Amino acid sequence: QVQLVESGGGLVQAGGSLRLSCAASGRTFSSYTMGWFRQAPGKEYEFVASISWSGGSTYYADSVEGRFTISRDNAKNTVYLQMNSLKPEDTAVYYCAAGPRWSSGRDYEPDDYDYWGQGTQVTVSS
Questions:
Q1: Strand pairing class (120-125; 10-13)
Q2: In contact, 38 and 112? CB cutoff 8 Å
Q3: Which of 7, 79, 89, 107 could staple 34 via S-S, CB 3.0–4.6 A?
Q4: Closest alpha carbon to 2 in 81, 82, 93, 101
Q5: Rounded to whole angstroms, how far apart are CA atoms 2 and 90?
Q6: What is the 3-state secondary structure of the chain?
Q7: Which class for 16: exposed (0-12), middle (13-18), buried (19 or more C-beta within 10 A)?
Q8: How many angstroms separate the CA atoms of 69 and 25, rounded?
Q9: 48-56 long-range contacts, CB within 8 A, separation 24+
Q10: pLDDT digits 0-9 by tens, 11-25
Q11: Residue 67 to residues 74, 75, 85: CA-CA distances in angstroms?
Q12: Is the pLDDT of residue 26 over 90?
């Protein structure tokens, strides 16, 4: 069992930056692919980024490539999402999720993930 708690969301102007954190409980955190998803009002969950269990591989949605960076610190049981050059269309509730164990990190679908945080709101004003 893994419990996830996100933090770091808020209101920011377009062009600004935010850093989301996701703290995980459990001794097996380092074995999980970790992902970030987002959901805007009235829309489906959207894949944002994922990172392999070792942190050696990262994957991004085209819409955030070059602006967002996912990272993890297995010693701290924490995964991060650094978001730069934010745009109004990035406005959403952001969720972190723990997915397959020992995988490559190339997991893009919500159904690939077993554990989810409660979400944190990110609002980007124009």
A1: parallel
A2: no
A3: 79
A4: 101
A5: 27
A6: CCCEEEECCEEEECCCCEEEEEEECCCCHHHEEEEEEEECCCCCCEEEEEECCCCCCEEECCCCCCCEEEEEECCCCEEEEEECCCCHHHCEEEEEEEEEECCCCCCCCHHHCCEECCCEEEEEEC
A7: middle
A8: 22
A9: 48/81, 48/94, 49/81, 50/99, 50/105, 50/106, 50/107, 50/108, 51/79, 51/105, 52/103, 52/104, 52/105, 53/101, 53/102, 53/103, 53/105
A10: 999 999 999 999 999
A11: 23, 26, 6
A12: no
Does the pLDDT value for residue 79 go beyond 90? Answer: yes
Q: What pLDDT, on a 0 to 100 scale, did the predictor assign at position 81?
A: 98
Residue type present at position 98: A
